[in-house]
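To whoever is on call:

I kicked off a structure prediction for a single chain this morning and the downstream step that reads the tokens threw a length-mismatch warning. I double-checked the sequence; it's 667 residues and nothing unusual in it as far as I can see. Pasting both halves so you can look.
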Amino acid sequence: MAESHLLQHLSFLLFLSVLTFAQNETHFIYNGFKGANLHLDGLADIRSNGLLQLTNTSQQQSGHVFYPQPVKLNATRSFSTSFVFAMYPDIEAHGGHGLAFVISSSMNFDHAVPAEYLGLFNTTNNNLQSNHIFAVEFDTVQNAVFGDIDGNHVGIDINSLTSIVSASAAYIDDKEQTNKTLELTSRKAMQVWIDYDGDEKLMNVSIAPLKNSKPTKPLLSTHLNLSSVLLNSMFVGFSGSTGITANEHYLLGWSWSQIGQAQGFNFDVLPPLPKVIKQKRNLETLLIVLIVVFVLLLVLIAGVAYLLRRKMFEEVKEPWENEYSSHRFSFKDLYFATKGFKDSELLGSGGFGKVYKGLLPNTETQVAIKRVSHDSRQGMREFVAEIVSMGRLRHRNLIQLLGYCRRKGELLLVYDYMPNGSLDKVLFRSSDFSCNPSWSQRMNIMKGVASALLYLHEEWEQVVLHRDVKASNVLLDADMNAKLGDFGLARLYDHGSNPRSTNIVGTVGYLAPELSITGKPTPATDVFAFGVFLLEVACGKQPFRLLNFDGEDMILVEWVFDCWKKGDVLQTSDPKLGGYYIDEEMELVLKLGLHCSHPKPEIRPTMRQAVQFLQKDAVLPDVPSDYDLERNGLFDDCWGVSASFPSSFQVSANTFFTDNSIRHHGR
């Protein structure tokens, strides 16, 4: 009898052990994660009590946890999983992004971006079928780019953060037969059930408070064919991320099965969540002390200081800007970054306003801050939306637009700081020949600008027309790499659609002749400006200045074409180079400049072709014989229209940055 009792006791202990940690090839369960052998990276960590913390309050970070061995999915791809999670917001009523259950072909997410991309994708691979990623997201930030329905939703994702189907977090109370909302950032544990029937191609997702039974009606139910997404061998796990604000994401338990319903949890052994410590402040006592001791003096000083400070740091902020809060800087931070916009921090000024060098107080990041006058009534909402959209542009040859701030009658734009200034400054404003960029540096600069324009025209999620390509808008970093900047005139539109006609804007000398007829910017008008830019860099002459040769006034493009017809195009090379260049490369650049600046847009190459020509991946043909600017008259038309523009259209970033010396290199 005693032996039987002992055997039952041992069996019960073994049963609890299996419940706490059990796994094999097709199913496993974690009732807490103490001692679990999981693949962790980023912020992910297992606490001593078995609680798995996916993220903490670190900003712009992500964390991942995966079952270490790949699961071998059967032919139907059916699976069932359940997990218990909780979210702790760093700031009340502000979502710090979310977490996602993930089935992925890889556990390597080194190139993934946190914040709105949840540590799964980036701007270049989002929505690529080659990702082979299925996810169920629990998102606490509404992002218009991904079509999020609100800042508290559950969504099913395939290879992209744009959900196939989504719904606000909620569950059906089977007893009361009512729909009850769940606040994902409530700091309370919740259980999730995700079930996929590979035969029926049916995906069900349910969520409910911990210890509630699984709702009879799922929150999300949709037919999905995952055969092209799920490979035979996949990894299962979780990803979480933080942004400007953060959520602490916790996992208490996880169950997985490919042979039926995922096993339920033993709630008694799940690890406890952290306690929320509420600081108790005795405001009444503090107020009494202040009133008794300093009432008159402090009220007077505080009142005056408050009014002055409020007036100094007053900003323009409307309710619609809340969705762009992560891209907005406070005026106070920008004020202190520039030491109060002191003249000692001034980088340049012109018709566009003034540009200051700044050091952001929180991150110690050097930035350039541009102050521009604006009328808040004239399409400001659309303008800010475009600023934020262009702030998502990511390319090694583009100036990064970091964000904006609005204050009274001015707009402040925050950019990366470029220590070597603008290209036109080193080309035209330095009398010291030794400071002029070498031919190899110029080739690298021209290739960089071409690559940036190709990205804007064809490789980003929308088509971006820069509309002001010129040397003064090309900035140079510490290594003399080109960064195309100043997107003040840029326009965005969707791939496959046509841009609308607008007011003719740009800079005299770079405007394509068809603009005077159609008023419609296109990628071809950017290509025209790029062609003029190539001639500008190769010849060391500004395109809008008249050149006098043999008693005849000519503009740069006409002069280069005239020399090409005479078979002596190399005589147009910049004298500051002193002949230190490769003849074949110089001729290639000059001929490509003429091709791109051809008066007929249909004859110009695309930016992809221009890049291929510069990289010598394609053979550049001779300049078309009909390239006769005086005969067809189109270029004169363009100059006639452009000449009537006010000087404010010649907006540039040519005084954003300071000069550094550069060495002269021979051929």
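Update from on-call: the warning came from a stale cache, not from the record. Cleared it. Sanity check on the structure: The longest strand covers residues 79-89.
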